[in-house]
Amino acid sequence: MATAKQKEAARQNIAKAREAQSARAHGKDVPRQGQGMSTADKDDLKNSEFAFPKERKEPLTDARHVRNAIARFDQVEGVSDAERDRAWQRILAAAKRYDIEVSESSWRDLAKGGKDRGAKGG
Fold first, then answer.
1. Do residues 49 and 60 touch, judged by C-beta distance below 8 A?
2. Are 63 and 122 in contact (CB under 8 A)?
3. What total of structural domains would you count in the chain?
4. Separation of alpha carbons 32 and 20, rounded Å
5. Range of the domain at 27
6. Are 85 and 29 in a shared domain?
7. Which residues are registered as beta bridge partners of 85?
8. How far is CA 101 from CA 48, 121, 122, in A?
9. How many CA within 13 A on the CB side of residue 56?
10. For each of the chain's 122 residues, which pLDDT tens digit applies?
11. How many Å apart are CA 100 and CA 17, to the nearest integer?
């Protein structure tokens, strides 16, 4: 079940998408994706810059990517609990580096967090 905050964010995203679609329909050149890391940029990263270095999953290069790594942590497949433990330690170190408050002390606590899980601030 979505929270009020998530619903409002979804409404804002839909409004932005409609504006962009309308602008494109009227001949304006509106980029189709936001500022993110290109595949080439991601390929240039060292393995140590990922939460899961062997799989090269979840880059930890800035605050936005660290928050994303926390949010998507349970979506990474094919890794052992030991690899998750090491990845979580890398995420916590990156969160500290980028001044992100992480309420969970273990990745196992992520599922328990419910609506208010993960990273805050930044």
1. yes
2. yes
3. 2
4. 8
5. 1-34
6. no
7. none
8. 22, 6, 8
9. 8
10. 567 776 777 788 788 888 888 888 898 887 766 667 888 888 899 999 999 999 999 999 999 899 999 999 999 999 999 999 999 999 999 999 999 999 898 999 887 654 444 555 55
11. 29
Statement to judge: residues 29 and 56 lie in one domain: no
Tokens 């916590």 correspond to: 92
Specify the amino acid at residue 69: A
* CB-based burial, 75-102: b 16+ in 10 Å, e otherwise: ebeeeeeebbebbbebbbebbeebebeb
In this prediction the pTM is 0.65
- Report phi then psi at 57, rounded to 5: -115, 145
The four Cα atoms 84, 60, 113, 99 give a dihedral, to 10 degrees, of 130
Q: Which two tokens stand for residue 70?
A: 């926390």
The residues, any chain, with a CB within 8 Å of residue 108's CB and separated by 6 or more, are none
